[in-house]
Amino acid sequence: MHLATGYENRRARIEIVPLIDVVFLLLVFFIYAMLSMTVYRGLRVTLPGGVGQTEKLESLVIAISADNTLWMDEMPVSVDEAIDRARAHSLISTAPVLISGDRRAELGRSIELLSALRQAGVESVSFQVKAEE
């Protein structure tokens, strides 16, 4: 004796709702992975406040730490090396060279660096500040 259940005549179907759930989970995973792969390549400094424009291009950053040491790409550099790298950067890019000085750094060090960069032919130099509250 054979009983008919009704499932013998049904066609296979693909459920869309679980597929959408899996796609959203993959999307969230890839977004989280991209955000966790960003690397901050700089020296943590306490920036002075000010008003300015946001730069859209990839700038070269010269950081001045609280003890007046120059840093580029997480490495201490001399003034001559910073000027050479800034001159090379200005030849291949229109992005400005940013001086990111700690609030506790001496002002004279920043002005000397700015003057040396101008004498070396680097035309676009800016100071990096945080927005005033």
Describe the protein in words.
- With 133 residues, the protein is an alpha/beta fold.
- The protein has a domain at 49-131: Nucleotidyltransferase, domain 5 (2-Layer Sandwich).
- It has helices at residues 16-36, 79-92, 107-119; strands spanning 49-50, 60-64, 70-72, 75-77, 97-101, 125-127, 130-131.
- The strands form 2 sheets. Strands 4-3-2-5-6 form a 5-stranded mixed β-sheet, covered by helices on one side.
- The longest helix has 21 residues, at 16-36.
In summary, what is this structure?
This protein is α/β, with parallel strands linked by helices. The chain has 3 helices and 7 strands, in the order αββββαβαββ. The strands form 2 sheets. The chain has a 5-stranded mixed sheet, covered by helices on one side. A two-stranded parallel ribbon has the order 1-7.
